[in-house]
Amino acid sequence: MALEGSLQDMSLVDLFQVFRMGPKSGMLILQHEDKRGVIYVHEGRLLDAFVVQGVARTVIATRDEAVLSLLAWHEACFVFRHDLSVVGRPTRIEHDAEWLVLESMRRSTRTPVASTYQNLTIETRLQLSPLPNSAESSVSLDVDQWRILSHAANNEDLQTICAATNIDKERTFRIVNELLAIGLVEIAPLASVVLRVRQLHHQRCLWQPLPSRLQ
Amino acid sequence: MQILKIVITGSYAAGKSQFIRSISDIEPVSTDYSTTLDSERALKKETTVALDFGTIAINDKLTLYLFGTPGQERFDYMWEHLAIGCIGYIVLVDSCRPAYFTETRHLLDRFSEITDAPFIVAANKQDDPAALPALYVRRRLVIANDVPVVPCIGTQRESVKLALIALLKHIAASAVEHTEDKAESA
Q: CA-to-CA distance for B102 and A46, rounded, in angstroms?
């Protein structure tokens, strides 16, 4: 038994958040063509990582650089297996996952990976993430990130946030993607189910009688 | 005897048949056939093509009828038939296979078109320590905060029972809210 998928199903950034939420311990293996990456995780913290290539398994990156290179992958299959024996491994990764995610975004010119299945629009409403962030997180936010984060706490949509902060739409979207990626904010559900039921009920009242609930 | 109908739905290999099997008072009625596609065979040998059916007698006067839907979208014409008259439904999610989240999201949207009955989401297969937590499942499926998302182990009767109780409580709460709305509008 294991958590299995591809990076299209679930980004590495999301996997890091899930490790922290657990907190989970084990070994994450990513495979893309002839490259293979391995990350050891103990109670949500990244302990060690490496990337190898080819049949000879030539090591092409280790430690923080291995994680950064894996964060740049957009296609790969992954398997995460729970394994408590990782506790015996020495910690060789210097920075925490949030720092590495932000650093990977700084190095990349592409849209942050968190946005692959989270489509932001100007109507997108944000809320603070209930995820427990590790106290020892070394992430430092810049002024604009803080400004947008403070508006997210008020459940405001991106249009309101752009207007209130005077940050242009493109930059706002990029910052929101960064905040999503490090797990500080999340997209608020569009409408509660109660609202949805009321809408459906209203629509049905207009067009047809409600069917009986029970046979 | 009052009969209440509950539908158990979810994507392929989410554990719907096992969920019903774990709690049913009767030997469940199943319509399982051998899987035909290689990708499906990799996960399980047999799949439900029409429905699963099980019952739970709450007391002398009340019995729950559980109907499990087929998981593959090519059998989705069955969903509408199975949803008729249901008082609520449970959407099972395989917490170890994020590949099925998109399909589950489509299923949630489709069911909200078919029926306005209340539902809960059960993040199944939580006996695997690597499983995604219910909180993450809620976020990825963009489930509204007032819809319960419960952790579940479909192979354990007690866990299945807790999921059903969560659904019944949610149905009761929705009914109260609906009554209050009607009173307000009157």
A: 28
Sheet holding A35-42, edge to edge: A3-6, A77-82, A26-32, A35-42, A45-53, A58-62
Model confidence over A165-186: pLDDT tens digits? 999 888 888 888 888 877 788 8
The total domain count for chain B is 1
**Min distance A199 CA to chain B CA atoms (Å):** 10
Q: What phi, psi does B145 have (nearest 5°)?
A: -65, -25
- Interface touch B181/A130, C-beta < 8 Å: no
Partner-chain residue, chosen from A2, A10, A193, that has the shortest CB–CB distance to B98: A10
Tokens of B183: 């009173």
* CATH of residue B15: 3.40.50.300
Question: What pTM does this model have?
Answer: 0.78
Q: Which domain holds residue B107?
A: 2-185
Residues near A135 by Cβ (< 8 Å), separated by ≥ 6?
A: none
Q: What is the DSSP letter of B133?
A: P
Give the confidence band of A152 by pLDDT, cuts at 50, 70, 90.
Answer: confident
A211 touches chain B (CB under 8 A): yes
Structure tokens at A209: 């009688």
Per DSSP, what are the bridge partners of residue A29?
A38, A79
For residue B147, which residues of chain A lie inside 8 Å, CB to CB? Answer: 193
B91 close to B83: Cβ distance less than 8 angstroms: no
Alpha carbon distance A84, A132 (integer Å): 21
Predicted ipTM > 0.90: no
- A200 by DSSP, 3-state: which? helix
Residue with tokens 């995460």: A80
